[in-house]
Design a protein that fits this description.
This protein is α+β, with helices and mostly antiparallel strands. It has helices at 52-57, 87-91, and strands at 3-8, 14-18, 36-38. The chain is elongated and about 65 Å long.
Length: 92
């Protein structure tokens, strides 16, 4: 079940309520008033780490299917190559 964030329009206190999508949130846990208003917040889901898709869902030697990937691209000179997407130029 998802956790939703609400603010009570009667007492003004925020609260988190876990309920089904099809259910109503119920009354405010602080004051008991049926005045909860749903807040918009960021989801608690983040894809982090190195290669979460590459290493987790592909099998065998199918680690990089794209032609001309970053691993096979020629390296820039230490002072940069002058191209718009050069990482060395972006740092300086």
């Amino acid at each position: 079940m998802p956790i939703y964030e609400y603010t009570c329009s009667a007492c003004g206190k925020p609260s988190e309520v876990m309920h089904k999508v099809s259910e109503q949130p119920g009354d405010c846990p602080h004051c008991g008033a049926p005045a909860l208003v749903k807040q918009i917040s960021a989801a608690g889901f983040r894809l982090a780490g190195s290669g979460w898709y590459e290493t987790d869902f592909k099998t065998g030697n199918k680690h990089n299917l794209a032609e001309g990937s970053a691993d096979s691209a020629p390296a820039c000179a230490p002072e940069g190559c002058g191209s718009a997407g050069c990482a060395v130029n972006a740092d300086g």
